[in-house]
Write a structure and sequence with these properties.
By secondary structure, this protein is α/β, with parallel strands linked by helices. 44% of the residues lie in helices and 18% in strands. The chain has a 5-stranded parallel β-sheet, with helices on both faces.
Length: 130
Amino acid sequence: MEGSKATTRRILLIDDSEDLREIYYVTLSAIAGLEVLLADSGQAGLSIAQQERLDAILLDVIMPDMDGVVVFHQLKSNPATQTIPVIFITARTHAEDRQHLLSIGGKAVISKACKPQQLAMQVVDLLNEI
């Protein structure tokens, strides 16, 4: 699998905030060298995840209509998407919130309060562990 690390990694960012999608897109593609697909809702993210080959999904927890936990459970119940690692991104910083997201199967939880460059480095580190 050593050769696969040399290829560009593809991630899907699901976040309802247009501003954050733009910031994360630029940061993750320019700094981390990732191919980033974008979804503005849980439903759009589910559709993209079923159609594309992804190395991971960055999933916002708090979204209207379908929150990140609901999206996560739908991803994990679908054979086409159940093996894609999910990294939650959230504004919630309480330890119990983070622990809950990890306990249901999230690979990691990244705070939205971190600087974009830190987010990019954390995502790259996590992809190297997956």
